[in-house]
Amino acid sequence: MQLLKNTMKLGLLSLAFGSTLAMAGAKPEEVSRLGQDLTPMGSQKAGNEAGTIPAWNGGITTPPAGYSQGDHHPDPFSGDKILFTINGQNYKEYQDNLSPGQIAMFERYPETYVMNVYESRRTASFPQSVYDATRENGAKGRLVANGEGVADVAYGFPFPFPENPYELMWNHKLKFKGVGGVRYNNQVAPTAGGDYSVVKLREELLGLYYKEGETSASINNILLYFFQEVEAPARLSGNILLVHETLNQVDQPRQAWIYNPGQRRVRRAPNVAYDNPGTASDGLRTNDMTDMFNGAMDRFDWTMSGPIEMYVPYNSYKAHSSDLDYDDLVRAGHLNPDLMRYELHRVWVLDARLKDGTRHINSRRTYYLDEDSYQIVLLDHYDSRGELWRFSEAHSINYYDVPTFWSTIESHHDLQSGRYVALGLDNQDPVNTFNVELPEAGFTPQALRKRGRR
Fold this sequence. Notes:
CATH superfamily: Lipoprotein localisation LolA/LolB/LppX
Shape: globular
Radius of gyration: 21 Å
Distance between the termini: 53 Å
């Protein structure tokens, strides 16, 4: 209710997709605003009236002194002091700028869960080539297949002037992340008491949409290729997942294959989608929660509102540090709050409610997207009774060597069991590589057979 009051108080827009599809598409008359009163991504360039959110001045465009390619990204704001702390005793003073999931975390862990709030810094930035492509997309881009596909776009954000939920979510799904590379996306799923083991996940990505010169028409409907191998623990080692993520999932659904070292065979995996459990997650996250949301939107009815001001995880360089070990991060119930950073930012709100006649473990989800990057930074999940069930955060940074703004750690909390799963923990592993164009030949079922081992 507080979030709804905040939305109404700010005089914000709420749109149902069914009534706005006719308005979707190219907006050439608006393009001149990009880089003027709007950022090149389409967000409001000015700060807020109170001065607590600054104007966007380009984001981070130069790595801090001492940074070398391949380093874990040093914190450009290591000297910042905590402005104030929200905790289990005072959270009601700030609840107009908190999500229901955040409020539930304070109530579930009143003694241990806190949010340290710092100066707001709008650090999101992207290459000039992405800005140029976004301008072109704003003049030409359009939705197809009832919103499940896009056309006449390339490389940049497809819809810098989002007017319906599908345009907004496509901005998240097609946000520039570099053409590809290798990363460790390690995962922990602690018990309610805090005991955990590490699942080491090595992943390779090749994003065809993010190759400069390609278009939505030229990539043969393949958005990206994804390869994931479990390296530890021993009982799971050697399990491999291969995904061909499609751009238009109505024309062609996502294709996936798995290699099981015990069976020493490759087989199709049609269930790597929607609410089927994510790899080694103890059922604490679903496949469509990867990167906070991915895949088709067709099982839900969507509305949008915003932007509104909320306290969200942002510039989480401290949690990204190579000086940390897993024991520094992992706590019972949630990650170590002393290593997390929250700031006041404007976010879009996307609310998804399960359609009649379809199934999903969630009856409703509410997504909160950073206005400058369209990265989903918060997510509230509701169970089949309509009760708040889970809460997710994307602790994000500007990877200023690319540059792009993306999560470094995702945490997904089960508010009923007291457990959570966190992934993206690469503090003791090589940092993500970006803009490394891996060969397409390595992302075929035939290549999977060759790469599989006992």
